[in-house]
Amino acid sequence: MAKLSTAELIDAFKELTLLELSEFVKEFETTFDVTAAAAAAVVAAAPGAAPAAAAEEQDEFDVVLESAGDKKIQVIKVVREVVSGLGLKEAKELVEAAPKALLEKVDKEAAEAAKEKLEAAGAKIAIK
Questions:
Q1: Are 13 and 49 in contact (CB under 8 A)?
Q2: How far apart are CA 68 and CA 95, in angstroms?
Q3: DSSP string over the chain
Q4: Contacts of 82 (CB under 8 A, 6+ apart)
Q5: What average pLDDT does the chain have?
Q6: What distance in Å separates the CA atoms of residue 75 and residue 67, rounded to the nearest whole number?
Q7: Nearest CA-CA partner of 53 in 85, 95, 25
Q8: Which tens digit of pLDDT belongs to each residue from 52-100?
Q9: Gap between the terminal Cα atoms of the chain
């Protein structure tokens, strides 16, 4: 295989769709055991590829209640605290409907804080 120059690689990336670039980044990460932060520089060099690079760096998270655990009442209390505007009935229904998203599209700090509070109450939480 002939070695491509940087300019030739950039030209090749310009011809790819965003979906193809995304698949390339995933394959690159797997093959070279690196994170998206390292590969994002390559992808960001291609015009129109900024959305693909942005998709790799997640800044919005969903807090999902997997199960209430053994301490359901304490979890309901914390759910009311974490999710604003919920009454007791709504919080109970939300906890009983697990797995269920409690918070959607929140920043990483808020997601981690909610996860910490809920796990302290006995719930099993996933951040996606």
A1: yes
A2: 6
A3: -PPPPHHHHHHHHHTS-HHHHHHHHHHHHHHHT--HHHHHHHHHTSTT-HHHHHHHS---EEEEEEE-TT-HHHHHHHHHHHSTT--HHHHHHHHHT-SEEEEEEE-HHHHHHHHHHHHHTT-EEEE-
A4: 63, 102, 103, 114, 117, 118
A5: 78
A6: 10
A7: 25
A8: 555 556 778 888 888 888 888 888 888 888 887 778 888 888 888 878 8
A9: 40
Q: Report the distance separating Cα 2 and Cα 96, nearest Å.
A: 60
Q: Would you mind telling me the total number of residues written for the chain in this entry?
A: 128
Contact between 96 and 30 under an 8 Å Cβ cutoff? The reply is no
pTM of the entire structure? 0.52
